[in-house]
């Protein structure tokens, strides 16, 4: 049976055209070259693709991800060096509310407070010199209510900017830092060693998406300020761009079901987690592939 690609309409009033559901494939089985190429083509067209009813081990999820590029090691271990981690591989990020013993985290747990920054609009690993490309998030356990993930289409958002704004932001560079996004929630208790492990990096504000060759914004909560502008001016510009990019016409909300694997392209989307009852278990795990280079080394 061949892969079927079905575009997904957004629940928001104006809709969005950057999400598709892919069916007719078992991702636990060996991925064939033609299947890989069809999945990549769907990602380039839509940016967010959903596979339902999958059954994957961590190793199978990692093996699947390798077909799409080298894998980023999880930044969680770099910024949480003194705590027990639940998952054994540093190639998979623990996107759950569970501690190292598999119990629901205490409200004041250090990792839980850090994890709350996932509710800010962000782009995975933009704070790394070689940022993230594709993120692949798999749902082991999801709560009955809440915990959706919202995605914003940054290609469509760029297209909709006035020409004067496109000219204004052309060539600008923003400094990205994971500590900036955490600081917005007053989560600042990190050691000097942890802070030094993830230094700030520069990234283009506008880049060309390599798969579709479309221009796209590259912003979100890790972006601290614009290089060469006074910090307040740069931050106001970034806030304006984020407000523009998160209008309902550019946003889609994914309602998770157990067995979902969702892939999104960090090079042309932002996303954020939505609230849920954090006394209930939510166990999702993410693998993120590396981009080819810093955005400064790629086409603007």
Shape-level CATH architecture: 4-Layer Sandwich
Number of strands: 15
Which descriptor suits the 3D outline? globular
Report mean pLDDT, rounded to a whole number.
94
Give the class-level CATH name: Alpha Beta
What's the story with the biggest beta sheet? Answer: 7 strands, mixed
Oligomeric state of the chains present here: single chain
Report what the structure shows.
By secondary structure, the protein is α+β, with helices and mostly antiparallel strands. It has one domain (4-291): Double-stranded beta-helix. The chain has helices at 33-46, 58-66, 76-79, 110-115, 154-159, 163-169, 178-183, 192-197, 231-245; strands spanning 4-7, 19-23, 48-51, 93-96, 132-141, 149-153, 173-176, 201-204, 206-208, 215-217, 223-226, 251-254, 261-265, 269-273, 283-290. The protein has a seven-stranded mixed beta sheet with strand order 1-2-3-13-5-15-4, covered by helices on one side. Strands 12-6-14 form a three-stranded antiparallel beta sheet. Strands 8-7-11 form a three-stranded antiparallel beta sheet. It is globular and about 50 Å long.
């Amino acid at each position: 049976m061949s892969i079927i690609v079905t575009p997904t309409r957004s629940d928001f009033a104006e809709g969005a055209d950057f999400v598709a559901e892919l069916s007719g494939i078992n991702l636990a089985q060996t991925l064939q070259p033609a299947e890989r190429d069809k999945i990549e083509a769907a990602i380039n067209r839509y940016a967010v693709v959903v596979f339902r009813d999958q059954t994957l081990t961590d190793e199978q999820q990692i093996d699947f991800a390798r077909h799409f590029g080298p894998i980023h090691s999880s930044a969680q271990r770099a910024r949480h060096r003194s705590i027990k981690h639940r998952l054994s591989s540093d190639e998979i990020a623990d996107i759950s509310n569970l501690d190292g013993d598999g119990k629901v985290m205490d409200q004041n747990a250090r990792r839980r407070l850090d994890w709350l920054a996932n509710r800010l609009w962000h782009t995975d690993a933009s704070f790394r010199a070689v940022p993230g490309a594709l993120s692949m998030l798999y749902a082991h356990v999801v709560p009955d209510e809440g915990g959706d993930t919202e995605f914003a289409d940054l290609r469509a958002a760029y297209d909709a900017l006035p020409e004067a704004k496109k000219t204004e932001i052309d060539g600008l560079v923003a400094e990205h830092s994971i500590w900036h996004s955490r600081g917005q929630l007053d989560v600042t208790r990190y050691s000097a060693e942890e802070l030094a492990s993830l230094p700030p990096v520069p990234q283009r504000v506008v880049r060309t998406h390599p798969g579709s060759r479309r221009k796209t914004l590259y912003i979100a909560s890790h972006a601290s300020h614009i290089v060469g502008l006074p910090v307040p001016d740069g931050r106001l510009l970034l806030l304006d761009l984020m407000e523009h990019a998160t209008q309902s016409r550019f946003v889609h909300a994914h309602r998770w079901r157990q067995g979902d694997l969702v892939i999104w392209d960090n090079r042309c989307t932002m996303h954020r987690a939505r609230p849920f009852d954090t006394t209930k278990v939510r166990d999702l795990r993410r693998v993120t592939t590396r981009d080819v280079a810093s955005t400064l080394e790629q086409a603007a």
